[in-house]
Amino acid sequence: MEYIRKLFSVEGKVAVLTGGGGVLAGEMAKGFLNAGAKVILLDINEEGIGRKVESLKNISTNVSGIKCNVLDQKNLEDVDREILKKHGRIDVLINAAGGNMPGATIGLNQNIFDLEYEQFKRVTDLNLNGTVLPTLVFGRAMAGQKSGSIINISSMAVARAITRVVGYSAAKAAIDNFTRWMAVELASKFGSGIRVNAIAPGFLLTEQNRTLLTEKDGSLTQRGKTILNLTPFKRFGLPEELIGTVLFLASEASSFVTGTVIPIDGGFSAFSGV
Q1: The pTM is what?
Q2: What is the domain range of residue 110?
Q3: In this predicted structure, what is the pLDDT of residue 92?
Q4: Catalytic residues
């Protein structure tokens, strides 16, 4: 039992989560704190990250927040130095910054030619480059210590065409490839102690997508009904249901796992609809 406990342990590990003010990063942070890790949340919204940190201190005082723009390399490098000065290492990086934007979503009565290209670029920049840049900056410490786990956020929009969210879908597809590419690169150049994986959440009902999936009275939109019809579990996922897989990927229990994209989707990606 002691061997198993140590195998799955993240106690004392230093975990950095971008998009720290968001729901998904917040839930994952709870999991790490309850498991004894040291958590640093990064977010461009300083006020929001402050509130999140204060709420998490009810679990553990081993949590802090730093204002950070994941698209600003100099800012990232300054934050990296600050973290290393305080903690001396980075063991886990979760690239949770991202998401879709209303301007990049094709409306119900629109088609692809109505897309606002500038909004498309903003979404792809945030979701792709907002993962690439933190990986290049914070991954350097892992390369130096020859150990670490990088966890990216993929999506159900990769394997299938999810209508209306073309920019988000394209960026997340690139995340899958980047995850595999970095897994090979880091293992080849810096050894098997560094792993790069991704999780692909299914449909979680959050404030970001609530208006797409539910009506004002709480009933399902047609889009919401279609999703549940294609999900064997017949429900939306909960943000806290990401925690177990993320802790597994961050621990030594996954020491021979790299370059993978793990669905956490209630069976959505397995079901043909028939």
Answers
A1: 0.96
A2: 2-202+239-264
A3: 98
A4: 168
